[in-house]
Amino acid sequence: MKPLLEVKRLSKTYDGRQVVHDLDMTIYPGDIYGFLGPNGAGKTTTIRMILGLIQKSSGEILFAGKPLHLLADPYAQIGCLVESPGLYHNLTGRQNLVLFQKLRKAKDSARIEELLEMVDLQSAADRKVKDYSLGMKQRLAIAIALLPNPRLLILDEPTNGLDPAGISEMRTFLKKLSEQGMTILISSHLLDEIEKVATRLCIINQGRQVAEAPLDQLLHTHRDLELVSPKPEALYKFVTDWLQMRGHTALTRLVDGNVLIEGFSDDSALLNTAAIQSGHSISELRIKTSRLEDMFFTFTEGGDNHVGRLASRSV
Ligand SMILES: Nc1ncnc2c1ncn2[C@@H]1O[C@H](COP(=O)(O)OP(=O)(O)OP(=O)(O)O)[C@@H](O)[C@H]1O
Fold first, then answer.
1. Closest listed residue to residue 93, CA positions, set 59, 55, 50, 142
2. Which residue out of 13, 14, 307 has the highest number of ligand 1 atoms within 8 Å of its CB and is therefore the one to mutate?
3. Is residue 302 part of a domain?
4. Both 230 and 169 in a single domain?
5. Sign of the C-alpha dihedral, residues 221, 39, 150, 78?
6. Is pTM beyond 0.95 here?
7. What separation in Å is there between the alpha carbon of 272 and the centre of ligand 1?
8. CA-based, 20 to 30 A from 237: which of 34, 52, 92, 222?
9. pLDDT, tens digit, for every residue of 233-285?
10. 206 Cβ inside 6 Å of ligand 1
């Protein structure tokens, strides 16, 4: 499958200070692409460059294989919600959609009904926007971005300011949109939220990419293995030596009387067989997939990484 959006070695420098460093992103059709990083990591700057709202300092941005600036009407291909939505609060939801459709010199009432249904605002369509909740306003703004039927939707921190119910509604909505074939790039500092919806992920920290891969793959290679044994100390020593012999860098610890291997990406059956052959008994072997939060700590360990400012729970 060919990527829909490719970002290659994208960089941005403000007044001599580089805030985005050689970023690579590959977004395939149908992805919910999570763009994750703490506050100030460079997410908005990157998104603004992708949307052509600010100039990139260097790098390439390709949409369906073509440089973005060669697209005839980029905003018909890429819908976005980047800042607080510019809605007309004294008009109803439906009137806002009609107005924005007119601005695009289009008239298609069936499309408006389709979008109201898609963002679950049919029953509130004739209420004034000033009476909408923030979540409803966000969804209306997304409906406006979807008016020209773009192939990619970019959402910068769409859950900012939403209450738990609003966050949950947004998640359901994004999944529904994705099932209907939309490709979505969503930036967030809410790890849990992204883990629940993303298919592919880019993690940045201080403008530098620390990971870019399918979510499954990232979680799989960053999993822990827990071994239960009647003689954990002896098993711990065996495991440490075995891993060292194989050049493995996974960290092994004794936790609550069990042997825990952090970040074990090797074959657990192989380790089990080796242990048994060396006379060790393993009564239970559990693979624990790391949560995104643990993974982020692993990736950014050791530096001044602003992790303290990274929200770990959506609620
Ligand atoms: N116009 C600008 N001039 C100078 N520096 C800027 C400008 N815009 C952003 N920056 C800096 O670039 C860095 C990245 O900011 P950016 O807003 O892209 O981060 P972010 O990951 O989107 O964070 P947040 O979630 O807080 O918006 C920050 O250090 C910020 O201060």
1. 142
2. 14
3. no
4. no
5. negative
6. no
7. 48
8. 222
9. 999 999 999 988 888 777 899 988 999 988 776 778 888 999 999 999 999 98
10. no
